[in-house]
Amino acid sequence: MVLKILNLYNSLKKLLFPVKGMLERGSFDKLFWDAAREVDPNFEQSADNQDLIEKVVDRTAPKLVTLLEEELRIGSKWNLWERRRNIKKFKKRLHRGWGVAIDQLEAFIGLNLEYGVVVSESYRSSHEENTKYEVFLRLHARSCQVAYEVLELIKGGFANGALARWRTIYEISVLIRFLTDKPVELTQRYLDYGIVENHREILEFQKNHKKLGLKAISAEEIKESRDDFEALKKKYDNDFVKPYGWTGAYLSDKKRRFSGMEETVEFKHLRSIFKMANNSIHSGSMGFLRVLGTYNQGEVMLAGPSDYGFSDPGQYTAFSLFQVSMTLFDFAPLLEDEIYIQLGEKLIDGIIRDFDGIQSQIDLERANELKNDPTKGNN
Questions:
Q1: What is the rounded radius of gyration, in angstroms, for the C-alpha atoms of the chain?
Q2: What is the rounded distance in angstroms from the CA atom of residue 100 to the CA atom of residue 155?
Q3: Which of 64, 71, 171, 313 is most buried when burial is the number of CB atoms within 10 A of its CB?
Q4: What tens digit of pLDDT does each residue of 53-69 get?
């Protein structure tokens, strides 16, 4: 029987790979049982036959895996070419519809980045090293980088992914605004808390390194990390190593969390959008029940790019990035900063207008389509 099953190897190739390269579910099982019953018409999947079945499958599987791998490698060249061609066409279509707003956002991100460089060079040339400024500058640089990530996700047709990345810029804007009007000592505490996070990451890694197939961290490194961790308790207090312990006296025990910092900033009304953005990060059901990229929620399962839903990530990215940028002016303010602020606010108004206008036009067009032909549903 084993030889009989192995002779099916070439037949499996034809059966499992139709012209389009799509696997037919259950093909191997059907062929296996057809062959088994050809040898013995009364052959059944019973406890007595289980050992034999497993041995046959074990002998067949490696050769079949090799075959499938080769077919996938050959077939994927055409599939990838076709997919990339379709994606290229899709991106051109998307840019025709959203290009005005996308270009505005890209120019705005570039302006923030360039102005950050100018302010940095000016400040560093005339001031001694300032821990608070250096931290803010790095937070600004990271915000610009993430803003470009949002931009690429929008260009690629991933509205939910774009809003999820905006979430990071929003967190940075809340953090940096929380630190702005407080002494440099608090910024140093924020920096030092990185040692706490690093120590916990080391301990977690050490518990799982074998399953990860990675080399363990040396005892010396762990001891050094633990010593640094304990030193922070002495430098500050035992509460420092608790979640958000670095905020110290600036947040009460009950409010030592991100939402506690959020309550102190003037744009805390964005928390509702932040909460919605969390749906795209976590595994809750709202992650697929509320999808920015679909027009009629719940009618289709979006498994790729779409040309809808970019208004929120586009305008909120511009707003939050600007909140971060403006904190750099406080260290050595000049008259020109006021001009930049007014320019930034005007550009943000234009970005909001363009993104909202395009989405509203799409909503109107699709509403009319559904009104004229209700069977169209979601694209």
A1: 29
A2: 12
A3: 313
A4: 777 677 777 777 777 77
> What are the residues whose beta carbons fall under 8 Å from the beta carbon of 301, sequence distance 6 or more?
288
**What average pLDDT does the segment 232-237 reach?**
95
Integer CA distances (angstroms), 263 to 178, 183, 367, in order: 9, 19, 39
Q: Are 154 and 290 in contact (CB under 8 A)?
A: no
Rounded Cα gap, residues 66 and 333, in angstroms? 66
DSSP string, 133-185: HHHHHHHHHHHHHHHHHHHHHHHHT-HHHHHHHHHHHHHHHHHHHHHHTS-HH
Joined together, the tokens standing for residue 175 give: 């953090």
Q: Which helix (H) or strand (E) holds 259?
A: helix 258-262
Which tokens go with 208? 């799982």
- What DSSP character marks residue 1? -
Calculate mean pLDDT across residues 67-78.
77
> pTM of this prediction?
0.84
* pLDDT tens, residue by residue, 91-111: 999 999 999 999 999 999 999
Residue 102 has which token pair? 């996308």
- 108, 350 contact by CB (below 8 A): no
Q: Count Cβ atoms within 10 A of the Cβ of residue 140 and give its class: 0-12 exposed, 13-18 middle, 19 or more buried.
A: buried
183 CB burial (10 A radius; 0-12, 13-18, 19+): exposed
Q: What is the mean pLDDT of residues 8-33?
A: 54
